[in-house]
Amino acid sequence: MLTPSPSPPSSPGSTPTPLRAALYLLTSVPLGALTLVALLLLAGAGSALAVLVIGVPLLLTLVLSGIPLAALERRRLRLIDPAPLADPHREPPAPGPACWLRTRLQERCTWRELAYALLFAFVLWPLEALAVGAVLLVCGGLIGTPVMMAVGGDGEARVLKLWLADSWPEAFAVLVAGVVLLPLLTWPLRYVARGRAVLTRALLSPPDSALDSRIAELDRSRMRLVDAFEAERRRIERDLHDGAQQRLVALSMTLGLARLEKPAEPLGGLLERAHEEASAALVEIRELIHGIHPRILTDRGLAAAVEDLADRSPIPVDVRLAVPDRLLEAVETAVYFAVSEALTNVAKHSGATRVTVTGEAARGRLAVAVEDDGRGGAVTAPGTDTDTDVGGGTGLQGVADRLSVLGGALLLSSPPGGPTVFRLEVPCPPADSRT
Fold it and tell me: How far are the Cα atoms of 36, 56, 70, 122 from residue 41, in angstroms, in the given order?
């Protein structure tokens, strides 16, 4: 739950307040000076001791010095820009300092951060010190005129080395002028700090092209995994349909023909029992095949498959689906099993007398809702954003995971007394967009 902040920072892209800008620039000065000293010491000592091999670790430390500085700069940037700056470094593939060092030296962002450290140490912080120092020098010199006059003891003070104040009224007039000029002169610091923040974000952010390519590759790999999973399901269904089911059909027919021969009574009873067992096994394997991937979903699409679910439901179901003729196979399968799970939960736990299934595709997304008039009160599984069935199962969690792989989401509203609304949304590109 979000809580309001007493003094929210400026939004990304806006100009910070003068106080935050001054604080950001002021903290740059000691940090930049410390960075300059550290870089000079590492470079000097590492170069001098390189011939003795002792300087090699110092030179490596110099190369990696941009990493901790960049991490600190990302945190310090929040003073004037609340948008978080992501860490571009990736996790090493294996534990250990050697693997970590090899990974960091192979990353482009490590060298970008080293370049930022050099720019910060030799260029940026002196400019920031000049900007902040000019404001403090002018305003401090004006405001401190009465103090200098009192300390001098001769009844006069030189203001900013420009003119001489030789009376107390004049000294206090200069003080008032300094107080008035302070907010006026600190106002431009906002734009200096903002420009500095933009430069920091540009240098320390991961390249957009690399980030976009990683996201695109993750999307492609995710869809390949989904397609591979569905292909494996179809293979299992085909093997069961063409292998085990056909053998059971042949066995059942053989046993039926044997019963027609009217053998002796003991053998007849055994044949009858074997025939019943084979018939029961055949029913179970047909239900298993239907659960893996129903044939109607493959042949006629999502709308017809949901209609078939409604016909087999023990509770009357009204179906109103306005969906394209065919969608991606992974999308159709995920939505079908989501609706199937919802109807199963309604039949087992809700006490409903009627269910309505509605759905439509708009703006590239398919939204389907299953609403019943039952007693409601479905229980939310701890640690998840979705609800499970009231019996405490995790079927809907699996549905949510399946939809999440496709970029979709699952929502369930079930107040005590009902109604319970099971709603899912999932991207629905046309079937010919599979890559």
Answer: 9, 14, 19, 14
Reported as type and span, the H/E element at residue 321 is strand 317-322
CA atoms of 34 and 338, how far apart (whole Å): 59
What tokens does 129 get?
């010190």
In the sheet with 317-322, reading across from the earlier edge strand, the strands are 317-322, 355-362, 365-372, 420-427, 409-413
**Confidence class for position 34, pLDDT limits 50, 70, 90:** very high
What would the two tokens of residue 79 be?
A: 């003073």
For residue 419, cis peptide bond before it (omega within 30 degrees of 0): yes
The CB-side HSE value for 183 (13 A sphere, CA atoms) comes to 4
Q: How far apart are CA 374 and CA 382, in angstroms?
A: 23
Digit-coded pLDDT (tens) for 328-339: 887 888 888 888
Q: What's the pLDDT tens digit per position in 280-331?
A: 766 666 666 555 667 777 778 888 888 888 888 888 989 888 887 778 887 8
Quote the pLDDT of residue 102: 87
Written as six digits, the tokens of 380 are: 């939310």
Sign of the C-alpha dihedral computed for residues 23, 24, 27 and 32 taken in this order: negative
Which residue's entry shows tokens 């039952």? 374
Nearest to 191 by CA among 73, 20, 31: 20
**Nearest-angstrom CA–CA distance, 364 and 337:** 20
* Gap between the Cα atoms of 286 and 192, Å rounded: 73
> pTM value?
0.46
Gap between the Cα atoms of 350 and 311, Å rounded: 19
- Rg of the chain on CA atoms, in Å: 37
> pLDDT tens for residues 370-410?
998 888 876 544 333 443 333 334 467 777 777 877 778 88
Identify residue 333 by its one-letter amino acid code: T
Give the Cα separation of 89 and 105 in Å (integer).
Answer: 11
pLDDT computed for residue 390 by the predictor: 35
What pairs with residue 425 in β-bridges?
367, 409
Which residues partner with 322 through β-bridges? 360
Q: How far apart are CA 428 and CA 331, in angstroms?
A: 7
In this structure, how many other beta carbons lie within 10 angstroms of the beta carbon of residue 148?
A: 15
Which letter does DSSP use for residue 390 in this model? T
Using an 8 Å Cβ cutoff, are 366 and 335 in contact? Answer: yes
User: How far apart are alpha carbons 325 and 333 in whole angstroms?
Assistant: 14
| Joined tokens for residue 106 | 């192979």
State the sign of the Cα–Cα–Cα–Cα dihedral 257, 260, 266, 269: positive
